[in-house]
Amino acid sequence: MATGTPDRQTVTPDWLVVDAPTIDGVALKEIRPVATSTGYLTEVFREEWNLDGLPVGQVFQRSLYPGAVTGWHAHGVTTDRLFCAAGSVRISLFDGRKASPTFGTVWHKIAGAVRPAIVVIPPGVWHGVVALGPDIAMVLNLVDKAYAYDAPDHWRLPPDTEQIPYKLA
């Protein structure tokens, strides 16, 4: 028999995620859709999940064409909560907070309609999204602070920046 590297455990027998996010302050909740007589019902966010204890200040959706890449972005004070409602995406994070115990860490999560999850991204953590597969992906964001049109809390870097040790594109 050929030798190789054995798979490591990623889920429990109940299909709960084994590995927590490796970036300080990032929270993840895998969500189980409920089968109904007409399809599926999927909760997106509930206060009692205690993911971050912050309010929901605004909810918006972003559609991404197949293969689309958002580029890296971060916030100074806003917390993002990303949920892929249609299609699938890879959410990539980079901890750019110099005072963080996980400074410099890169972490990824594949999420979508088939395997729903919500990823909570604190201020100072760079993140980018890549749409996977042949379908349009629909990402919801449930931010704690509404977008300020006159003073956006938004910083951007290109997907292939040398400042982050992972290329989105």
Automatic annotation (TrEMBL):
GO terms for molecular function: dTDP-4-dehydrorhamnose 3,5-epimerase activity. Its EC number is 5.1.3.13. GO terms for cellular component: cytosol. Catalyzes the epimerization of the C3' and C5'positions of dTDP-6-deoxy-D-xylo-4-hexulose, forming dTDP-6-deoxy-L-lyxo-4-hexulose. It catalyses: dTDP-4-dehydro-6-deoxy-alpha-D-glucose = dTDP-4-dehydro-beta-L-rhamnose. The lineage of its organism: Bacteria, Pseudomonadati, Pseudomonadota, Alphaproteobacteria, Hyphomicrobiales. This is dTDP-4-dehydrorhamnose 3,5-epimerase. Signal peptide: none annotated. It is an enzyme of class 5 (isomerase). Pfam families: dTDP_sugar_isom. The record marks 147 as: Participates in a stacking interaction with the thymidine ring of dTDP-4-oxo-6-deoxyglucose. Gene3D superfamilies: Jelly Rolls. It comes from Mesorhizobium atlanticum.
